[in-house]
Amino acid sequence: MALSADLLRGYTDTIILNQLAETDSYGYEINKRITELSGGRLELKEATLYSAFRRLENSGYIIAYWGDENTGARRRYYSITVTGRDKLAESLSQWRETQDTLNALLSQTRKAPVLRDSRGGEIPVIQVEE
Amino acid sequence: MALSADLLRGYTDTIILNQLAETDSYGYEINKRITELSGGRLELKEATLYSAFRRLENSGYIIAYWGDENTGARRRYYSITVTGRDKLAESLSQWRETQDTLNALLSQTRKAPVLRDSRGGEIPVIQVEE
DNA sequence: GCGAAATACCTTGACAGGCGAAGTAACAAG
DNA sequence: CTTGTTACTTCGCCTGTCAAGGTATTTCGC
Q1: CA–CA distance, B62 with B56 (Å, rounded to integer)
Q2: CA–CA min distance B41, chain A (Å)
Q3: d(Cα A10, Cα A14) in Å, to the nearest integer?
Q4: Which end of chain B is more exposed for a tag (fewer CB within 10 A), N or C?
């Protein structure tokens, strides 16, 4: 079951920055690496990917340069900037906070729903051992 | 620092369902409870909240009924349906998976960027104790 | 040698969720 | 009687994702 990047909305940029923090790379490779690292659970669509690059570049978080390979298709490499690293650090800490917050909101102990018969009497629920 | 709900996009529904899984409630109260549980880090905007209710109702995950209080403003209560509970369970497991995936993508050990002087020589980085 | 697949990039337009802004209405407190 | 709180509603904008389409080169099987 693949995750929709829609559930990760807003994190594509962070994911990309995190990849670039390790080493310069180009779109196609970054995408493959993301798929790989996520165990195939996340596959960014190209449109998503390249629009993220444009966004990151416009924000000054990455800079682009053409690779000089004399064989194969031309590659557009990206490099993370200092501001980009700052942004990444900020996003990572924000992700930790988001996790905490969402876990707090989603992990409350919950009573089982009470079943009632037609006269409003409670129907006992048999507890199943896990 | 309040979280942007944009980072939680797609989870508002789950958060609401999770609240309703505990007990029937109405918009204003649910919102206050969310703010409270999140330690003030998440405050859903009313437009967000009520459009979520409409969405959830149209999907059959919740049903609405008017409260019969004879004082104060009228309240529209919501109750989670059986399908809603199923959906909630699914969303919760999806959230766990999302967390795992994102953590896998964001938590790789990273080399510090190498600083170089004008002749390309490496500038040693002084390690700061934390 | 040729067609398919893989590599590699790019663009356009639609869609959906979050939100700013505004409105309605009842009641409480001062 | 004005301000604040409770409570709900609607309209239209913004932004990130994606479906669908395109270009160009190289590699591999047959």
Answers
A1: 6
A2: 7
A3: 8
A4: C
The residue of A105, A108, A109 whose CB has the most chain B CBs within 10 angstroms, and thus the best one to mutate to test that interface, is A105
Distances (CA, A) of B88 to A27, A49, A54, B12, B98: 35, 30, 36, 11, 15
How many folded domains does chain B comprise? 1
Does A121 reside within a domain? no
* Residue A2 maps to a domain: no
Q: What percent of chain A has pLDDT over 90?
A: 68
Note whether B21 and B80 are within 8 A (CB): yes
Q: What are phi and psi of A25, to 5 degrees?
A: -160, 180
Is residue A111 in some structural domain? no
Identify the CATH number of the domain in which residue B36 sits. 1.10.10.10
CB contact under 8 A, A41 and B106: no
What's this model's pTM, rounded to 2 decimal places? 0.83
Q: What are the pLDDT digits (tens) for B99-108?
A: 999 999 998 6
- Please enumerate in sequence order all residues whose Cβ is within 8 A of that of B49, keeping only pairs 6 or more positions apart, or say none: B12, B16, B27, B30, B31
Chain D bases closer than 7 A to any CB of the protein:
6-12, 16-21, 24-27
Name the residue with the least CA to C1' distance from nucleotide C21.
Answer: B47
Sequence-distant (6+) residues with CB within 8 A of A38 are A3, B101, B104, B105
Residue A57 domain-assigned (yes or no): yes
Distances (CA, A) of A94 to A87, A97, A100, B20, B66: 10, 5, 10, 27, 38
DSSP-assigned beta bridge partners for residue A79: A63
pLDDT at residue B128 is higher than 60: no
- In the block, residue with structure tokens 């409409």: B54
